[in-house]
Design goal:
By secondary structure, the chain is α/β, with parallel strands linked by helices. The chain is built from seven helices and seven strands. The chain has a single domain, classed as NAD(P)-binding Rossmann-like Domain (Rossmann fold).
């Protein structure tokens, strides 16, 4: 999650798959999604296959899909023929033009432990015995002071610290553990979205957000060691300043200090996520890739 992109969670009326609002033109449809009828008793349900391919269609589970990096990730994987299951605290809008429909969207409040556990069971039900080839933990929250200002460690309420860590830190490991069998069977990949704010004090990202992202970077290394023997790779990407619909005031001053002198794009981040979820990165695990135009140097 970019520190300039607060709370990538779907707003009511916004499509969690495409970011579209009512009246927006319909996007080019991805390969059709298989229905989820119960498997016959005599034999398992056939795996959905990618359009024009004899290979079973791969499945991505993505949190935080409604805009910015998440939105670009949906488009990147869908264009490659993947089935994309999204998670959001909001229901799937009826007006969303995305062909996959609500059957590939799971409504969940990741700040609620019990609801996250429930969602894991629902995801397994939606898979109907299928696999998860990639889990991308992109959802994140960053509480702000009145007027949108940064909350430092002295100002952030304890309850806000707990909520931020539940969404940004505990939810990723809960999902990975709860779906470990589906990931292991697929020899899949996990990508945790951290932030440049996790390695330096950032002018916009609050203390709770930054600390949770630093913890998630450390957790990524631990997960790589734990999941590696199971054949599952675990990596992280740490975006810097990314050009999204909502940018914090003063971003232009940061851009002037970035070696490449520009903002990154959501698609540049999505391309890296896709790389980490494919065979092109088959010997990469435990890494945190900085996508910030050299801002970290």
């Amino acid at each position: 999650m970019s520190p300039t992109e607060p709370k990538p969670q779907a707003a009511p009326g916004v499509c969690p798959m495409t970011g579209a609002r009512p009246g927006d033109p319909a996007p080019i449809a991805a390969a059709p999604t298989a229905t989820h009828a119960a498997a016959p008793t005599a034999s398992p349900a056939p795996r959905p296959r990618a359009s024009g391919s004899n290979e079973p269609r791969k499945t991505l589970l993505l949190t935080g899909a409604s805009r910015g990096i998440g939105h670009a990730t949906v488009k990147r994987f869908s264009a490659a023929g993947w089935r994309v299951i999204t998670c959001s605290r909001h229901h799937f809008p009826e007006e969303c033009p995305w062909g996959a429909g609500p059957e590939d969207h799971v409504q969940v409040d990741l700040s609620d432990v019990d609801d996250t556990v429930r969602a894991i069971d629902e995801i397994k039900s939606r898979l109907d015995g299928g696999l998860i080839h990639a889990l991308v933990n992109n959802a994140g929250i960053s509480p702000k002071a009145p007027g949108g200002g940064r909350l430092n460690g002295l100002e952030t309420a304890l309850d806000d610290w707990k909520t931020v860590f539940q969404v940004n830190f505990f939810a990723p490991i809960m999902l990975a553990r709860g779906l470990s069998a589906e990931l292991t069977a697929a020899k899949g990949s996990i990508v945790n979205v951290t932030s440049i704010a996790g390695s330096r004090v950032h002018p916009f990202a609050g203390a709770a957000y930054a600390t949770s992202k630093a913890a998630l970077a450390s957790l990524t290394r631990e997960m790589a060691a734990d999941f590696g023997p199971l054949g599952v790779r675990v990596n992280a990407i740490a975006p810097g300043e990314i050009d999204t619909a909502i940018l914090s005031p003063g971003t232009d001053r940061i851009v002037a200090q970035i070696p490449l002198r520009r903002l990154g794009t959501p698609d540049e981040v999505a391309k890296t996520i896709y790389f980490l979820c494919t065979e092109n990165s088959s010997y990469v695990t435990g890494a945190e890739i900085h996508i910030n135009g050299g801002q970290h140097v």
